Amino acid sequence: MNHTLTSYISLFDKNLQATHRIQRIEIPLIQRDYAQGRHGASVERIRKDFVDALHDAVMHDDRPISLDFIYGDVVDGTLYPLDGQQRLTTLFLLHWYLSWQAGEPIEGQAWRNFTYATRASARQFCEALANYRPPAGETDLKGWIVDQPWYFHGWQHDSSIRAMLVMLQALEQRFASASSEAFAAAWERLAATDHPAISFHLLPVVKNKLNDDLYIKMNSRGKPLTPFENFKAHFETLLKSACPAQADDFAHRVDTVWTDVIWAYKDADQLIDDQFMRYFRFVFDLCAWREGNRADSKASLDQLAQSLFASDQAKAVEHLNYLFAAFDIWVDLDTSDAFNTWLRAADARSPSALLLFNPLRTQPGQSRIDLFGGCCRHYGDSEWSQAHSLLLYAVLLHRVHNTADFPEQLRIVRNLIEASGGGEMRAQNMPALLEDVRRVIVDGTLDGVSTFNQKQIANEKDKINLLAAHPSLREVVYQLEDNSVLHGALAVFDLDPAQDPAIFAQRALAFLTLFEDAHCWPQLTGALLSLGDYSRKQDRYGGYRFFDFGSPRSEAVWRDLLASRKSPELVQPLTQLLDQVAQSGNDLAVLKEIQQAFLTACERDHVLDWRYYLVKYPRMREGNSGRYAISQRGYSICMLDKTVMRSYYRDPYLSAVATTSGLKVPDNNLWFYGYETLRRGLERTGGTVTIESVDEGWRLENLPDDPELVRNMEDLRASFDIGSDQIYRVPQENGIDATDRIMLGAKLLHALDELGL
């Protein structure tokens, strides 16, 4: 390849032999704006490093530097750089700055023939700068320049001009302590034609007949380093100081075997830089957590490396060994096959692999359960969670330590993670959570596991004891754990090792029959309530309490209700239900039979409490959240679709009586807003009088003023024995309905409708 080792000032040498004589340099239109003076953490770091290198080269006799290749077209004596624009621009500014500080004359100097064609403003700025210089002793170059009459105010919007001003400030700051003698010597080193302080290889297209594609393939060093390339360079420098014995090994591995590992996750542009950086950050965070510290998500990768691997860090070598291990475990491993062996998504058929409840949302063709690939693509964004970090850490521990019983231990870790979303999974807990995972995976014990959900830890120990006594139950226990409602938590099951394993298996099969078929949940809510008030309660005010039941539609509601509760109020009716379902041969028709038996008993005994109504009328169990605000006696209820009162909800008594009556009641009239203590009346199409369910029966509101309607109202009162308190009383015994208030309310609505009320 025909190229010339030269310097910026020597480009204009009439005796330059390797190319045509160059009279000027012009940055062509196809090039981007000048970028080395931009703002931003990564650019500022690059600029500082480059200015430091230039400073050292011109201020010392023994530190010359080469800027590699600069490539471009030479046409009629003008060099149009296709690669090297950034470096040439910085060199132009450096020559301008040092020639001024050294007191060198500017007139007639060929190096001034430098301009931009990207924008007219950039061209004009370069031309003006080449013809003017500040007075001696000026200490604010930018301030002086923008204050000159030749500087147009509109130039502040040109990104290249702004960047050149920033670079001049950087040069001014770096050379601030130099003396006049030092500046003179620096200029001599910079302008020397033999052994210049700063040199590069000029590769003219005229001589070599290259095209852009060939040049890019041949050499890309002239391009700005990517953030990952900059990180690698800084990290290698850091390691040479802190861990010199392993620095070369790192440089070799990161460019060879580790690149091969990450290459499987390349993006559409065939790049892996971002993937590398995400995994490095993950491992750096692991190192911080393992040391008992919190990870700093706002710190740059360089800052994290400095905090872990600097020579003054006591555990630098330990962290580096862990970094090597965290990469080396994937070398020569088909990660996709490996994760398919360990994990599966819900729609996959691999009975030996562990079901992952939170698979990754990926692009077509990407694995949803390959956590290593997911980390490379998503670590640090919203797709990646702390749960993913802990599961991947478990896999790392297994690979590093070659642990035994990994499938069983990974299952325990998954179950603990799923049960620990109520506050345990916090950023400040990650060091302790990692230690818990290590105890389970490496030590193979739950002893000392202290940060995950304590109820689930006890549940895992109970399951271990049950399976030790009855190994034949392992498959059915795993099926229950993998159920989408339970998510590993079997608190509602009797796990006593002394029980008959056949009964446990029957109950498990009945549970799976019920909870793997959401179509039966509307009947399930009624059947379970028939066997007892299984709700979780929370006191409110005004005599109301929240009652949390199962949902006719929401899996999450059932999970929240069943996963962590071991109270008799829930366990006893659920166990009774499972036994009856099992005795029926898992025929779901038994759900209606259970409800009918309960209703028959209530009607026989004249005890029609709120449970009776919720069981008899499916319309009263339609609340998606499973949450109800119920009054003390139970005849005033709010049925919530959300879990808070700050949302629209329905009154189940009004919904049921409207449906039972068959009258036209707009759906909007069945929704209410406000606290549960507010009155809620049923409004009908064509009617004015509203009815409200109260403890004693049905209260009438919005009574008419029209004389004829008043007479009709009096007739209604007489027919339904309604007193001056406007309440149509339901027959009761000891404050509990003895007659169905919904049926009575429907008759009342028809009477109101017939009388025009």
Structural features:
30 helices, GmrSD restriction endonucleases N-terminal domain-containing protein, elongated, 757 residues, 19 strands, 6-stranded mixed β-sheet, 6-stranded antiparallel β-sheet, GmrSD_N, alpha+beta, 47% helix
Summarize the structure.
With 757 residues, the protein is an alpha+beta fold.
Descriptive overview:
By secondary structure, this protein is an alpha+beta fold. Among the domains are: 215 residues, no CATH class; 223 residues, no CATH class. 47% of the residues lie in helices and 10% in strands. A hairpin with a 2-residue loop joins strand 3 and strand 4. Helix 17 packs antiparallel against helix 18, helix 23 packs antiparallel against helix 27 and helix 28 crosses helix 30. The protein starts with a strand and ends with a helix. About 2% of the residues have low confidence.
Helix content: 40-55%
Class from secondary-structure proportions = alpha+beta
Q: What kind of oligomer do you see?
A: single chain
Strand count, sense and barrel status of the largest sheet are: 6 strands, mixed
- Measured between the Cα atoms of the first and last residue, the distance is 101 Å
> How large, in whole angstroms, is the Cα Rg?
39 Å
State the total count of DSSP E strands.
19
Provide the low-confidence segments as ranges: 207-224
Q: Which whole number gives the mean pLDDT? A: 90
Q: Label the overall shape.
A: elongated
What share of residues are in beta strands? Answer: 5-15%
Provide the spatial order of strands within the biggest beta sheet.
Answer: 1-6-3-4-2-5
How many helices? The count is 30
